[in-house]
Specification:
By secondary structure, the protein is an alpha+beta fold. Helices cover 27% and strands 30% of the residues. The strands form 3 sheets. Strands 1, 3, 4, 5, 6, 7, 8 and 15 form an 8-stranded mixed beta sheet that branches. It has a 5-stranded mixed beta sheet with strand order 2-14-9-11-10. A two-stranded antiparallel sheet has the order 12-13. Strand 4 and strand 5 form a beta hairpin.
Amino acid sequence: MKKLKKLLATMSAGVMCAVSVVSFNTSALTQPFYSNGTIEQVIDSFDDDAVVFKMYEEEYNKVFFEKYGKEDAEKHFRHNGKGAYIITPEEQFLFHGYDSSVTITVKDGTTLLEDELKEKISPYTHGDSMDSFFHYIGETKYYLHSTEEEVYDIIKSYEQVQSIDKNIYVVKSRLFGVDGIEIKTELADEEIINMFPELFLKRKTEEYGLGEGCKYFEIGYYKAETADGYIYNDVDLYNGLKKLQESDLPYSLSITEAGLAGEQYQSGTVNIYTAKTLDGDANEDGEVNIADATAIMQHIGNSDKYGLTMQGRANADCYNTGDGVTGMDAIAIQKLEAGLIKSLDEA
C-alpha cells in the first residue's frame, strides 16, 4: 500500500468560498480494488504525491478533537459521514463515506424473533421508528438501520445468523473549498503568515468558536476588488498545505461546502461477521485435515493467488477466534491431524 501524506482538518457548513475547484476526473479513479466503496479504499487509490487528511481520525484533526472532545467529535463524524479531503498538484477532492445500515442473513428455514431482537436493540435506534429500523426484506434477509458495534454483538448471539454485512457508500462533493486554517500556536501572526506564503494568509481577529490557544487564518484568495470584479491571489493550495502538514503546528482546516451537494461515487458492502460451518475447514470440503492447514499457509503467503472465500476465512479462524487467519490456525489443524489434540478447542 502506498504511503499517503496526511493533513489535519475539519469542516464547516455554509456558503462556498470563492476558490477554483478543478473538475473531477472519474476515469483516473475507477479501479476495482476499492469497488466496495469504503472511504479508506478511495483514499488508498491515490498516488504518492497526493496530500490526504481524514477528518474523522483524531491524529489528523487534533484541534477539532481537542475543542469538542473525542466522544462528541466521533459522534459528529459518524452521523455526518467520514470526510476525507485529498489534494494533488492538479486537482482537489472531497469525499464523505457513510456506513448506512446492515443486512442480516439467516439460515434457510429459520427466522429471527423480531419482537425479542427489537427490544434488545432499541437503545441503539437514535429515536428511529423500530418498524423502519429493523424489518424483514424477503428470503432469508433482514435490514437493520444501524452500524453500532453493540448491535452486532447482539445479532451474533443468535445461532441462526449466518452473516452480517455493512452497507456503505461514498459521496463525492461537487462544490466546496478550503477557506481557512485554525492553528494552535503562540507564534506571532506575521511569523505564521511568512511560514506559508503560498496561502496568502490573513488573521481573522474574531475569537468566537476557536479552541483554547488557537488563531484562525483565512486563506487569501481575494487580492482586491475593482470596478471590473475581484482580483485573485495566486494561491498554491497544494504546496501550502503540504508545507503546513510537514510543520509541527497542530491545526484543522475549515472546508466549506455549498450544502452537501454531491454524487454517489462508490457503494457496496463490507462483511462484519460470517458464522462458521465447520471449525478449521478452510477449503470448505466438509473435512478438517492437513489440506486446510496448507490452504491457510498459502493464503497467508499470497492471498491474491490463494484466496479463501469469506466462509473459508471464517472457518479457518480456529485458534484464538476473532484475530483473523494466522499461522497459528494452521498449526492448530496440524496438531489435530497429528493426534496431539483431540479437538481444535484444545489448541
